[in-house]
Amino acid sequence: MDSQMILLGRILGEVYRLQERSDKDDAQVFGLRNGMEYAIEQELLEIGFVSKSDTQAIEDALDELDKRHRQGSGAADYYSFESGLTSRGIGRSAILVVFEYLLRDSRFADVIHALAEGHAAIEIKGRVNRVERELEAD
Asked: Who has greater pLDDT, 49 or 1?
């Protein structure tokens, strides 16, 4: 575990201690505050984490899909898109998080919408529609 992750864990531990969060037990807060790798890993699993490399892989796949779509090489197919990423160890939950991040950052919106409008998992359609409504409300 690198020093940035240890620092993140310590900061989270201090924040939880100061907030006196009832959903974190004393052992977890102690472990975070003292840089214990197990406590930090557990916290990151609970919070959720998408690595830079996974984010980049999803963006690269979206970019490739966008290029093919602009060349008229057929419609976007979510399940093929997901399968390519799953074979690289990137799951649907990471894809959902990155899609939302990119939509909120106004990047790849057309491609993400095309994937969601086609034959796609209901949680993909739901997340994209929810984010779109939230962005329109702002």
From this structure: 49
User: Using the 8-state DSSP alphabet, how is residue 98 labeled?
Assistant: H
Q: Are 38 and 49 in contact (CB under 8 A)?
A: no
What type of residue is 134? E
pLDDT, tens only, 76-90: 789 999 999 999 999
Based on the fold, state whether residues 62 and 42 are members of the same structural domain: no
DSSP secondary structure string for all residues of 67-85: HHHHTT-----HHHHHHHH
Please indicate, yes or no, whether residues 82 and 116 belong to a single structural domain of this protein: yes
18 and 79 together in one domain: no
Per-residue model confidence (pLDDT) at position 21: 58
Tokens of 76: 């976007």
Q: Are residues 90 and 63 in the same domain?
A: yes
